[in-house]
Amino acid sequence: MVKARKYVVKRYFQGVPKKDDFELVEYELPQLKTGQFSVKAEFISVDPYMRAYGYRRPIPYDQFGFQIGTIIESKNPDFPVGCRVVNHQGWCDYSVVTDLTENHSHVYLLPDLQGLPIELALGALGMPGVTAYFGFLEICKPKAGETVVVSGAAGAVGSIVGQIAKIKGCRVIGFTGSDDKVQWLEKELGFDKAINYKTADVNKALKDAAPKGVDCYFDNVGGELTAAIYKQMNLYGRVALCGCISSYNEDPTTYKTSSLLPLILYKQLKVEGLIVSRWYEPENRWPEAIAALAQWIKQGNIKARSHVTEGLDNLYDAFVGMLAGENMGKALVKV
Amino acid sequence: MVKARKYVVKRYFQGVPKKDDFELVEYELPQLKTGQFSVKAEFISVDPYMRAYGYRRPIPYDQFGFQIGTIIESKNPDFPVGCRVVNHQGWCDYSVVTDLTENHSHVYLLPDLQGLPIELALGALGMPGVTAYFGFLEICKPKAGETVVVSGAAGAVGSIVGQIAKIKGCRVIGFTGSDDKVQWLEKELGFDKAINYKTADVNKALKDAAPKGVDCYFDNVGGELTAAIYKQMNLYGRVALCGCISSYNEDPTTYKTSSLLPLILYKQLKVEGLIVSRWYEPENRWPEAIAALAQWIKQGNIKARSHVTEGLDNLYDAFVGMLAGENMGKALVKV
């Protein structure tokens, strides 16, 4: 019998998630049935959508999320023992994958990473990378020479979007929350300009950085920063809305922001929300994005960075740290 | 010499436009130069964009807007004396059309209205009709059987959008501001349901009227009504944003609304702002829309209503009345 531990959410988050909203439950893994297999986790992902989407599930629920693990027992010939697998089993050290047909089960054998570190399968070569790739290319439809703004630019998705935009010949401006991140974006990732929104005069800094206005905006944060960026967008600008991390800890019944509608109207902007599962179902296009991203990383055109916390016991800290913007690149926990 | 009168805006509007923001100026029409012609106005349009877009011009400016008139003198062989013309000369009884190449000059001979009343060239067969036609069909991309919501449904644009949606086989729900308008929309225009947003429980009324959720939303008003409608939109819903009349009299530096971004994100909505001039330049597609709309009116599939105020002296009242929602159908002034 395998002793397993998993995080269960006992209470819907209000404001910043609290440690005792979670319970770390110990239990014995059940026997496998036909088609099932069990996994020992190696890396577990912490992502903003874990804050945003919990309210859709009945309480209590097992904390969902991507992980990479090794198959330790299997009654499924497609998933043999010893293989590495990417799955959506969440915050747990051992688990049984019970239903491959379940919506958003997102279980697949670790793809060919062309020798790159396996943890990238949770970052640039996983959900965040695929989000950046399709979200930016298919919704922003960037053209060479255009000006692209990315918010949450040092995060798992934003850092990849900015680098894809550079590959596509765009001028790239990133908004981020610390001077260290500004340095990283400008000096290592090749952003034309990075701006610390916490200390800069955002309007002025953006005007200086984007004298011809903004054509594409990849938005991870929402809120007042987004309102300031919309003000400098050009006619027919395109916005890919990927996240609203600035509002995830707000109470949606009372939270108010500057209205974006007049700006969308007068500039005739196109704003589209995106969730990466749209490129998974009905048609799984993730392999296409992962292959392209792996190629770019191998060629040195994209640098992928992981921000690793050690230990299952530190998942909560890694999660709230990521929500507070402590990570550069992809936030992960190594089990 | 022709004595002419025109409305000049002396001060940018703040809140509801005030009578003394305008000055009614009397002057003598200048002599025509080659290529110019003079027009005696018959009908003058009052529209929400007159409230919204004035800030873009230096003060003082002549109040812009569409009118229909007759050419009384001409040094332009394309615009002969005696012909009727649609132009953007604004709030004036006589004027000289000086520059046909000017951006948004929008001067064209009255199109063939197939015997329909000429004032429709300012409504269903003019700018508002073209806005409704392309904005709804090309941005909402409605499919038969889908549920369509229109706000400002009894206005010049909204009333046409709803009827086009019925022609296309959609279920149509309109939001409007009085019980009289509700009656008109349901009994005469064939809306499946009209809701008085001032008196109804908007969330409940919409849930009852749209049990399968909302696929397309044609938005003329913005504000909290729009937030309520977004909440009931379906995955991948499409929003054509045509106006924000609810906020035109608000101070944009302090005006706050419920944030729409989380809804756009989670439902993966596509929101696009539109201004009708995009179908005029670089390519003039207005004739295509006007011909289709005239056909539908002749067939009885679209009912076009004008709300006519008499007299140049009453333009201000007609304008603020329209902003307050006093009109059913297209608000016009007969000179």
Kindly describe this structure.
Two copies of one chain form a homodimer. Chain A has two domains: 3-123 and 305-334, Medium-chain alcohol dehydrogenases, catalytic domain (Quinone Oxidoreductase, Chain A, domain 1), CATH 3.90.180; 127-277, NAD(P)-binding Rossmann-like Domain (Rossmann fold, 3-Layer(aba) Sandwich), CATH 3.40.50.720. Chain A has nine helices and 17 strands. Chain A has helices at residues 49-52, 127-140, 158-167, 179-188, 202-209, 223-230, 261-266, 286-298, 315-323, and strands spanning 3-9, 22-28, 37-45, 61-62, 67-74, 84-87, 94-97, 108-109, 147-151, 171-176, 193-196, 214-219, 233-241, 256-258, 270-273, 306-310, 330-334. In chain A, the strands form three sheets. In chain A, strands 3, 5, 6, 7, 8, 16 and 17 form a seven-stranded mixed beta sheet that branches. Chain A has a six-stranded parallel beta sheet with strand order 11-10-9-12-13-15, sandwiched between helices. Chain A has a three-stranded antiparallel beta sheet with strand order 2-1-4, with no helix packed on it. In chain A, strand 12, helix 6 (223-230) and strand 13 (233-241) form a beta-alpha-beta unit. In chain A, helix 2 crosses helix 3. The longest helix of chain A is centred in the middle third of the chain and has 14 residues, at 127-140. The mean pLDDT of chain A is 95. Chain A binds chain B through residues 52-53, 219, 222-223, 226, 241-244, 247, 252, 255-262, 264-275, 278, and chain B through 52-53, 219, 222-223, 226, 241-244, 247, 252, 255-262, 264-275, 278.
